[in-house]
Amino acid sequence: MSLLAQVIGTIEEYSLLERGEPVVVGVSGGPDSLCLLHVLKHLAPEYEVTLHVAHLEHGIRGEESEADARFVAHLARQWEFPITVEHANVPRLAKEEGLAIEEAARRARYGFLARVAVHIGASRIAVGHNADDQAETVLMHFLRGSGLAGLRGMLPLSPLGELRLGEALRDSPLAAALRLIRPLLEVPRSEIEGYCRRNALEPRFDRSNLDTTYYRNRLRHELLPTLEDYNPNIREVLRRTAQVMAADYELLRRELEEAWGQILCQESEEAVLFDLEGWRALPLSLRRSTLREAIHCLRRSLRNINWVHVENARRVAERGNTGDQATLPRHLMLNVGYEGLLVAREGYVPPVDWPTVEAPLPIAVPGATHLPGTEWQLTAQLIDRAHLAGAALHSGERWQAFLDADVVGEGVILRPRRTEDRFQPLGMGGHSQRLRAFMINAKVPAQHRDQVPLLIAGERILWVCGWREDERAKVTESTQHILWLRFVRSPEAG
């Protein structure tokens, strides 16, 4: 099969081109990108696409890379393609961002291609990755340690956002719609070089491709030739592995999405909360993948997640008790709660949808008191015992309480807890208990205990709001006057 037929087959199988749409073609000047541009030049009329050449000069090889830029610009003009050339200082970027040169160059290159695509209104960016690049990528991911996502290698068609290029690109709605296409992904490098010779194409030679201080070059020039001594078809084996893994990954991804919907309690840019029991009931593969997905949701620019981090977090989540934690990448933590499994930044305190106070707050009795900084107010109403049906005292509403008004007395306030707080929980026969012990037994999440408002008269806790009244203030047969307290959304909140 000819190279052209192989490319057409890939384009058709994966729907790489949209008829009538512009395509940005990343051209470095090397054999792969030169072959790609030449092939697409011939196919453009058939697929009714227009091509826009894009070249980024990385600022790494001095005059050589500047000559590459001039070569690509001349070729584009000769072939009558519009072109965008941009110069970058990748060594400086790598130093500023604390990145390896290869990673800094990668981010700069794809960020540049994305900007060009957005500028010209293209949804497709074509790059010249070939079948040998695919084999190298799969092997590289295997050696570094990877799951299915890494072992599937590169895809013929993939969203640009999956490349994890940083927050700025991720947050652009236009960039989010971009797709990276690799029409040469099933073509070996030797066939590409032969195509260039047959068509009198004279690609530029990048000396840095011979520098074995770069990880990929060392793998290409040293490790793969050694592996070919064991299996001459190792490159094809690695490419088939990528195809198998890609199909398996799609299946696992569908399972993950279904499991995610079943166990997810809350998701935001700051935190992911799972139902603990539901998560623990998942198969092992999905327990791992949901943790990885939570990390990706919160750290979208993170490319590689360490296996040790995920495994340690999984074991803590499976066997840990309330309050246990595990360290995750990029300052994230996993926290085991009473009923939930929280993945969030270190020190994160989840917001609560209940009334809170940060300082002592006098309460109007009777009347309504707005809780500063919240959407809540506390209403207080005095009722004669004879006017309240007995059933109303046991309504079970969490944020209301009926107390003996004469026992409560005057000077009622709300405040947060203190270290020395004690009270007599209703139903314990007047037994006194430390507030901290009560909250533990009541399964109040540790990070929320300082946010529970307490109703105080004098030095006595009359109501741990939302949880339990005090035994001494309960309504009895001898109660004459009842204080009805109820937290409601405040009209002042709009």
Q: Would you kindly provide a written description of the structure presented here, covering whatever features stand out?
A:
The structure is a single chain. It is elongated, with a radius of gyration of 32 Å. It has 494 residues and is α+β, with helices and mostly antiparallel strands. Helix content is 40%, strand content 20%. The chain is built from 17 helices and 22 strands.
CATH superfamily of the largest domain, please? HUPs
Please tally the β strands and state the result.
22
Q: Enumerate the spans where pLDDT stays under 50 for 5 or more consecutive residues.
A: none
Number of domains: 3
What distance separates the N and C termini? 70 Å
CATH-defined architecture of the largest domain: 3-Layer(aba) Sandwich
User: Biggest β-sheet, characterized?
Assistant: 6 strands, mixed
What Rg is obtained from the alpha carbons, in whole angstroms? 32 Å
Can you count the helices?
A: 17
The largest sheet has its strands arranged as: 3-2-1-4-6-5
Beta content comes to 15-25%
Mean pLDDT: 89
CATH class of the largest domain reads Alpha Beta
CATH topology grouping of the largest domain? Rossmann fold
Taken from the alpha-carbon principal axes, the silhouette is elongated
Structural class: alpha+beta
Share of helical residues: 40-55%
